[in-house]
TrEMBL record:
Keywords: Cell membrane, Electron transport, Membrane, Oxidoreductase, Respiratory chain, Signal, Transmembrane, Transmembrane helix, Transport. This is Quinol oxidase subunit 2. It comes from Scopulibacillus cellulosilyticus. It is found in: Cell membrane. Residues 123-235 form the Cytochrome oxidase subunit II copper A binding domain. It is an enzyme of class 1 (oxidoreductase).
Length: 293
C-alpha cells in the first residue's frame, strides 16, 4: 500500500514538473499572456480537474474494497456470476459523461479559435506570413512590405493572423505564452490567430524535429505598443537593407542564421497566401486545436 502511494505521488510530481518545465526560456504554457493562450489554459485546467476526479474516485473505490474485503479469507467463497446491472450501468455511463464534459468545451474552443479573439473584435487584425525553413523562421509583413528572420515584432493587444507555410520539411509554429501550435507545410494553407496582452518578449520555436539544426528553430515575438511598433516599422524602412531574390534564396538553403531585418520583400517566389478559400487551420500536435505542447 505504501509502495503504491509513493508511486502515485511520484507520477503526480512528474506530471506537474512536465507541465511547468516549459517555464524556462519564457515558455510557460501555464502563464498565458493573451486571450488565445487563456482559452487553452482554461481547457487544460478543466481537463486536469476531470482527470483528477477520475483518479480520486479510483483510489477511493480501491481503498474501500481493500478495507472491506482485505481481511476476509474464505476458500469456499463462490462469487455470483449473474453480474450486477447497477454497477455495469454505472461504469458505462460515467465514462460517457466524462467524454461529453471534455468534448463540449474542446469543440467550442476549437471553433472559437478559428476567429480573431473576441476581446479585440473592434481592432483591425494584422496579417504576417510565416515561412519555416531548415533551420530558421522568416516573417513577411504584407502591409508594411518588410521582412525579418528569426524574430517578429507585433503590436500588443491586437489580433495577429499568422499565415503559415514551409520550405522543405514540415514544422510546427509554437509560441507557448501566446497560444498553441499549428503546422507549417509546403504547398498547404494554414493559419493561426494569436494576440499578446502586453508588450514583452515571448519565445517561440518549432515543435517538429527537423534534423541536426532543430535546436536552432527558435524565434522571438516582440510585442510592442502601437506607437513603438510604428516607430520600429519606420526605423526598419529607413535603415534596413532591401532583400534581393539572391539573398532570399541563400536564406532558404539549409543552415542556421542569426536575426535579420530587411526593408522589402523579394518580388518572386513570395506570392501571398489566399486564406479566404481552402484554408486548413493548423491542428495541434498534442490532440487539441492550437493546443499546448
Amino acid at each position: 500500500m505504501k509502495k503504491l502511494g509513493l508511486k502515485s505521488f511520484a507520477a503526480l510530481t512528474l506530471l506537474l514538473v512536465s507541465l511547468t518545465g516549459c517555464a524556462a526560456d519564457n515558455q510557460n504554457v501555464l502563464d498565458p499572456q493573451g486571450p488565445v493562450a487563456r482559452t487553452q489554459f482554461h481547457l487544460i485546467v478543466w481537463s486536469f480537474i476531470l482527470m483528477a476526479l477520475v483518479v480520486l474516485g479510483v483510489f477511493i473505490i480501491f481503498i474501500v474494497v481493500l478495507v472491506k474485503n482485505g481481511k476476509k479469507n474464505n476458500p469456499n467463497y463462490d462469487p455470483e456470476d449473474d453480474g450486477n446491472v447497477k454497477l455495469e450501468v454505472t461504469w458505462t455511463v460515467i465514462p460517457i459523461i466524462i467524454v461529453i464534459l471534455l468534448a463540449i468545451p474542446t469543440v467550442k474552443s476549437t471553433y472559437d479559435l478559428e476567429k480573431p479573439p473576441k476581446t479585440a473584435e473592434a481592432k483591425t487584425p494584422m496579417t504576417i506570413v510565416v515561412t519555416s525553413a531548415d533551420w530558421k523562421w522568416v516573417f513577411r509583413y504584407p502591409e508594411q512590405n518588410i521582412e525579418t528572420v528569426n524574430y517578429v515584432a507585433i503590436p500588443s493587444d491586437r489580433p495577429i493572423k499568422f499565415q503559415l507555410q514551409a520550405k522543405g520539411a514540415m514544422n510546427s509554429f509554437w509560441v507557448p505564452s501566446l497560444g498553441g501550435q499549428a503546422y507549417t507545410m509546403p504547398n498547404m494553407k494554414m493559419s493561426l490567430w494569436l494576440q499578446a496582452d502586453h508588450p514583452g518578449d515571448y519565445l517561440g520555436r518549432g515543435a517538429n524535429f527537423t534534423g541536426k539544426g532543430f535546436a536552432h528553430m527558435q524565434f522571438h515575438v516582440l510585442a510592442k505598443s502601437d506607437s513603438d511598433f510604428n516607430k520600429w516599422v519606420q526605423h526598419v524602412k529607413s535603415t534596413a537593407p532591401p532583400i534581393t531574390q539572391k539573398k532570399y534564396d541563400e536564406i532558404m538553403k539549409p543552415g542556421t542564421v542569426g536575426r535579420m531585418t530587411f526593408s522589402s520583400t523579394p518580388k518572386d517566389d513570395r506570392a501571398d497566401i489566399d486564406m479566404s478559400s481552402g484554408d486548413m487551420s493548423g491542428m495541434d500536435m498534442g490532440g487539441m486545436h492550437h493546443g499546448q505542447h
